[in-house]
Design brief:
With about 350 residues, the chain is of the alpha/beta class. The chain has one domain. About 30% of the residues lie in helices and about 20% in strands. It has helices spanning about 5-30, 90-95, 105-125, 220-235, 285-295, 305-310, 340-354; strands at about 35-40, 75-80, 100-105, 130-135, 135-140, 145-155, 160-165, 165-170, 185-190, 205-210, 210-215, 245, 300-305. The strands form three sheets. Strands 4-5-6-3-9-12-13 form a seven-stranded mixed beta sheet, with helices on one face. It has a four-stranded mixed beta sheet with strand order 7-8-10-11, with no helix packed on it. Helix 2 (about 90-95) crosses helix 3 (about 105-125), helix 3 (about 105-125) packs across helix 7 (about 340-354) and helix 4 (about 220-235) runs parallel beside helix 5 (about 285-295). The structure holds 2-acetamido-2-deoxy-beta-D-glucopyranose (3 copies). One 2-acetamido-2-deoxy-beta-D-glucopyranose (NAG) binds near residues 209 and 210. This is Protein trichome birefringence-like 43.
Length: about 350
């Protein structure tokens, strides 16, 4: 047998091996939807202890605020067709060396940012970190890796301006987007503030073009603002530098009818997920708008589709064990450790597989 024949054989083996590897990746991407699955009881799954995450905000620190039950920490998200990759905090820092990640949005965005910084710190407790806050921007840095993980508080994504006519919510203006340019991973969210009325509402009038409105259907206003954001993405994002995600809509649990238990006033006392196959409240109305707007964007944008899996977690909120330990009821944010850790596991999966 000549050298050429041996080389040929090796070549065939090599090609079939690559084929096999390639085939597996295609299976992962095309057959397995990480967002379709269920929560499974898994008492052995590990999660960080909130006491090992010194910078965790008190409003999310349910254990420290006295939440007595811990069953809610023993459920793992299990996609139907495959397993989620384990969150590997060391790999994450190595992979994102020299890169920047920014969460932009409201306090649900803060919730996910805190979860990610806790996951990374507790996985790399020896790695020095720094945390700086200036105005609405919080920057968490691992200097040895030059990895920056930022949170920019921005409840509407579009602009609010003070004018002589009052505080104007400008549905078609997004000057706040300047600081998003050039960031390597952007994760946006907005929803909850669009529903505010009365004294909680931080604007007086809506503006679109040269028209102003005292009131507007909130879902319509939301869609207009998201379309402004979508145009920003198409105009300003360079996909070879920045990956863009939308967090999806984080659901509240303020009404037991949503999960088929009208006797439950809210999430208080809920100690286990909703275990049925279909969440009774159905699709979230804001999520439907988000999906419609994302389809209109021509640049690559990835939906971190956390809505359905979070709808099932009526047990994941601080309820009375949030808000700095006050007795307010919080069925909107999430305890940490908790559900947002799964959001970040999904973010990690999306980042390493695309
Ligand atoms: C707008 O006015 C409010 C008071 O009505 C003030 O608290 C806020 O700082 C002002 N914002 C800007 C950007 O000037
Ligand atoms: C408002 O804008 C529209 C289109 O942009 C324009 O046709 C119209 O003249 C403007 N109206 C006023 C009062 O400026
Ligand atoms: C809870 O939801 C049900 C069904 O959608 C509705 O009839 C009821 O008014 C809601 N309760 C509250 C307190 O909003």
């Amino acid at each position: 047998m000549g050298a050429l024949a041996i080389f040929g054989k090796i070549f065939v083996v090599l090609v079939s091996f690559l084929h096999h590897v390639n085939g597996r990746f295609q299976y992962l991407n095309e057959q397995c939807d990480f967002y379709k699955g269920n929560w499974v009881f898994d008492p052995l799954q590990s999660h960080y202890d909130s006491s090992n995450c010194p910078f965790i905000e008190k409003q999310f620190d349910c254990q420290k605020n006295g939440r007595p039950d811990n069953l809610y920490l023993q459920f793992r998200w299990q996609p139907f067709g495959c397993n989620l990759p384990r969150f590997d905090g060391e790999d994450f820092l190595r992979r994102f060396k020299g890169r920047s990640i920014m969460f932009v949005g409201d306090s649900l965005s803060l919730n996910q940012w805190q979860s990610l910084t806790c996951l990374l710190h507790t996985a790399n407790p020896q790695a020095k970190y720094s945390l700086a806050r200036t105005g609405g921007l919080s920057t968490f840095t691992f200097p040895a890796y030059n990895v920056k993980i930022m949170f920019s508080r921005n409840a509407f994504l579009v602009d609010i301006a003070n004018t002589s006519a009052g505080r104007v919510l400008r549905l078609d203006s997004i000057e706040g987007g300047e600081i998003w340019k050039g960031v390597n991973v952007l994760i946006f969210d907005t929803w909850h503030w669009w529903l505010y009325t009365g004294r909680k509402k931080p604007w007086d009038i809506f503006q679109e073009g040269n028209m102003t409105y005292d009131e507007m259907d909130r879902l319509v206003a939301y869609e207009k603002a998201l379309n402004t954001w979508a145009k920003w993405v198409d105009t300003n994002v360079n996909p070879s530098i920045s990956k863009v995600f939308f967090q999806g809509v984080s659901p509240d649990h303020n009404n037991g009818s949503d999960w088929g238990d009208p006797s439950a006033k809210n999430c208080e006392g809920q100690v286990r997920p909703f275990m049925g196959p279909i969440y009774p409240a159905g699709a979230h109305k804001a999520q439907i708008v988000v999906e419609k707007v994302l389809r209109s964007i021509s640049k690559p944008v990835f939906l971190l589709d956390i809505t359905t899996l979070s709808q099932l977690r009526k047990d994941g909120h601080p309820s009375v064990y949030g808000h700095g330990g006050h007795n307010d009821m919080d069925c909107t944010h999430w305890c940490l450790p908790g559900v947002p850790d799964t959001w970040n596991q999904l973010l990690y999966a999306a980042l390493i597989e695309t």
